[in-house]
């Protein structure tokens, strides 16, 4: 039996691996259950219904104000209130049309009306009639681009706030939960695996009649199989469960991508399929980086506990630190730990939040590849020095 086959067998026979993965699957299953329960409240019809209720309250309030206005048509406030009532009444009619069209499956009509509403909102903001901030203006522009895409490609509506379809649910998991929780589990399992050959800080694997490079390559491949295999396995199981319950959804459904620039955010819609491919590539590189980093720390500390603690401080710890420490935020594009959440990187949300133009998919690929290569060279150098001794 080759050393690589032995290491792979050790990975699959470790009892902690299935236990940790089962706990992760259970937690993500609870998220899916909660999404299924609350998803009806985030449908297009439910959104239109809540808008109707809100605008109807506004109409009633404004009509009461008119009744108490003794000057009636003589004041400017009176005319403004009348105009606001008319505007709200028109919006209620549009929302009712959206409800009716969505119920009948006439998605093109529903999306066109929604696009027209968002276009009106943008016009109001552009004319300075609304004192909303940058985030609100960006959100309106996102919705405008989103419904503009859908009115030309009238696909059935899929909620991205509480998604239940296979593809959209995977994207939510990999944006909000899985990268952080899985990274902790992966670092724990990798530390146990890669420090297993060290006893009283002596590397027993060096006693085997194998070249030092073969040992490193075998450990790296086994670590990659452990992390990538587990990550893809969890995603596959959750995708199948979500798809069996609510369908897979469409890979042509739009996903909003933002690019931060000096002149302001550039917003566009891409297909879910093309978006997911970039996320997979970036997430895979992030996991490979975790493998080589833990292997390097294992060679330095030759003990489970210090290697695990330093790995946690460097990966999730430094990722959190970039949110708080301003100097780190300025250089975060060149820190591989920043790319823990591949969905936020590819979508441009993190670049917008940090107002960093360099924080994007291309920089992430470059940074992670260079970091993996540098750490791999450091591992080879440390092995060469110890071999000489």
Automatic annotation (TrEMBL):
Keyword annotations of the record: Membrane, Transmembrane, Transmembrane helix
Transmembrane segments: 16-36, 177-195, 216-245, 275-298, 305-325, 359-381
Protein's UniProt name: ABC transporter permease
Species: Lactobacillus kullabergensis
